[in-house]
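Running this now, will post back.
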Amino acid sequence: MVAVGRVCLHRRCLAAAGGRERPIRARPATFTRFIRHWVRERQAVSLLEGVRKCTLIPAEILAASTPDMRAKGRLAAGADADVVVFDLDTLTDRSEFSAMNRAAGGRAGTCWCGGQPVITDGAMDVAARPGRAVRRPVSGT
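Update: finished.
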């Protein structure tokens, strides 16, 4: 764990799915787990840096091949404005390899996607569909 910790603390390291005992696979709670473990519990990474590792760094890496990613991972004029307001003290991941689709736990008071509210005061608007898929351009062969 010492080597993993040193890598996680590097300023260009991003949060990613993986595990020692199982093959690497994307997990819904990857970012929640990273924030809970490295920011809240270990206090090895600031909240600002933890959010950057979960949002901006992945967007910057993907932007070279997927131009739509240039508008992701940041709060700025013209950006896609996906924002989650959460309670750091209650944030927790509940997924496991045997139940990977379990939603994260904790209080997410507000969530905006594409600038539109999806969760307000903890209540989800199930009719809201503001998001759109980000696709890499297909190159002709």
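The first strand starts at residue 83 and ends at 86. More later if anyone needs it.
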